[in-house]
Amino acid sequence: MSEAKTTSLYEYHLSKNAKVIDFAGWSMPFSYDGTLKEHQYVRESAGYFDVSHMGRLRLSYSQIEEINYLICSDLKNISNTKALYSIFTSEEGTAIDDVIFWKFNDDLILICNASNTNKIKTHLDINSIKYEDLTLTTDLIAVQGKDAIDIVSNIMTVPEKFSTFKEGKFVYARTGYTGEDGVEVMLDISDTLSFINELESKGVKPCGLGSRDTLRLEASLPLYGFELTDEISPIEAGLKWTVTNKDDYLGKDVIDNQIDSKEHKHLKRFKLNAKQIARTGTKCISDGVEGNVTSGNISPILGYPIGFVLFKSNPSDDLVEFDIRGNLVEGNLLYKRFLK
Amino acid sequence: MSETKYLETHEWYIVDGENFTVGISDYAQSELGDIVFVTLPEVGQEFSKGDAIVEVEATKTVAEAYAPMNCVITEVNSNLETEPELINNDPVGDGWMVKAEIKEMDDSGMSYQQYESFIS
After folding, report:
1. In this structure, which topology does domain A265-334 adopt according to CATH?
2. Which residues contact A76 (CB under 8 A, 6 or more apart)?
3. What is residue A204's DSSP assignment?
4. Cβ of A275 under 8 Å from any chain B Cβ?
5. What is residue A1's predicted lDDT score, i.e. its pLDDT?
6. Touching check for A277 and chain B: CB below 8 Å?
C-alpha cells in the first residue's frame, strides 16, 4: 500500500499532540484534547476541523445541465449563491456519494468524501464532465460551533445560511456537518496556517475526526460508507428531502418507485436504555424485521447511546432488540432528530 | 503491598495479601479514548484467570478487562458508574475497577519496565 497522504497542516497537528489515524488513505487528526472535550467545544463555543482530505473539484458553470443529470437534487434552478447538499445517484438509484456543491456565477465547487474522490472523478470522466482537482493545492477548514459565526465575522463576510461567498483568499460557504452553525472555508495551502492561527487566537479549538463523528451522529447526519452506500438509495437513507430534481436524472425511475411504493429498506434512528453502545454491524430485530446498525455511539449531550439502523423493510413498532455481543438489549426507534 | 504488575491484555493489578486490585493501564485508556460507560461485576461473582470481568465502552471502541487470576469479587469501584472518566484521568489510581479475593495466586504479570518495552 502506498504511504498515507497528509494535509498541509500535518506537522502542525503533530505539534499540537494530535492523535493521528489513517482515514481513506490520509493521515488525519483523530483528537487533540479528547473526543468528548472537542464535542463540547463545538456545542458550547467553537472548534475547527482540518477536512482537507475531502475531495475538491472545480467545475465550469457551463456543464450544469450535465451535472444536474447525475444528482437527485435541483442544482440548476437554485440561485448562484447557494450551497447544496446532494447525492450522486447510480442508474439503480443508489448513492455513489453524498456531496456539497458551492454554486457561484462562474463556477461550481464540488466537495466529496475522501473515500470517494477517485470514484467521483471516474464517474465525471465517464460522463464527459471536465473538472479541475483542487484537493492537493488547497485546504478545507470547517469552523463550527455555537459561537462560530460571531467569531468568523471578525475575519470574513458571513453569508446567509447555506450560501456561498468568495472574499480575498477565501472561498467558502455557510454549511457544516455538526448540527451547529459555521463555515467551511477553502483556501490555498500557503494561507492555511495563518488562518488557523487567527482562529485559535480568537478561541477556536482544534477538533479531530473523532468528535466530527460524534457531532454528526448526534446531529442525525449520515456518513457515507455507513448510512449511505452504493447499495442504498437516498430514499432508503431517509434523505427524501434531497430529491428535488424535477428533470430526468440517473436512477430517477427507481427512486420515484420507492417514493410511491414505500417498499424499500428503511434507515431509522434509535436510542438505547442501556450502558452499552450498539456499534456498526450490530444486529437487531423490530416487529419481526431484521436490521443492522450502521453507526452507533454515545450522544455526549443526551448522555445515552444513539445510532442509525438499516431495516430490510419498515417496522411498525418502535421497540427494537439489539444483540450486543450475545446480550439482548432493548432500544427504541425515534421519529424525530436526536437533538432539536 | 507488592509492586504493580501488568498483563499483555493491558490490565494492571496489585496484590495485597489475600486480595488484589485491578484496573487498566494508562496506555490502554489512551488507546480507547474517552470512556463513557463501565459495566462492573457483582460482589461475590467468581472468575477464572482470563475471564472478562469489566466491560468498558469508549467513544472509539469497546474493550474488556480480564481477571489476572482466579478470584471472587469483594468490592467494585462504584464511582465509575457516574464518573467513568476517572479511568481516563487516573487509570492506576482513582480509576481502579474491582478488588477481589485471590482463589489461586498467579503473580506472573510483567513489571512496569517489562510492560513499557512490551507496548513500545
Report:
1. Elongation Factor Tu (Ef-tu); domain 3 (2.40.30)
2. A64, A65, A68, A247
3. P
4. yes
5. 53
6. yes
CATH number for region A10-52+135-218: 3.30.1360.120
Nearest CB to B33; choose among A31, A275, A277: A31
Task: Give the ipTM of the model, two decimals please.
Answer: 0.89
Q: In this predicted model, what pLDDT tens digit does every residue of A95-143 receive, in sequence order?
A: 999 999 999 999 999 999 999 999 999 999 999 999 999 999 999 999 9
C-alpha to C-alpha distance for A310 and A269, rounded to whole angstroms: 9
d(CA A77, CA A301): 38
Q: What is the pLDDT of residues A57-88, one digit of tens each?
A: 999 999 999 999 999 999 999 999 999 999 99
Distance from C-alpha of B71 to C-alpha of B97, rounded to nearest angstrom: 14
Which domains does chain B carry?
5-104 (2.40.50.100)
CB A73 within 8 A of CB A244: yes
Predicted structure pTM score? 0.94
**H/E stretch holding B15:** strand B11-16
Task: Write down the domain spans for chain A.
Answer: 10-52+135-218, 265-334
Judge: A275–B38 Cβ closer than 8 Å, yes or no: yes
Minimal CA separation from B39 to chain A, in Å:
7
Query: Considering CB atoms only, which of A36, A275, A276 is closest to B34?
Result: A36
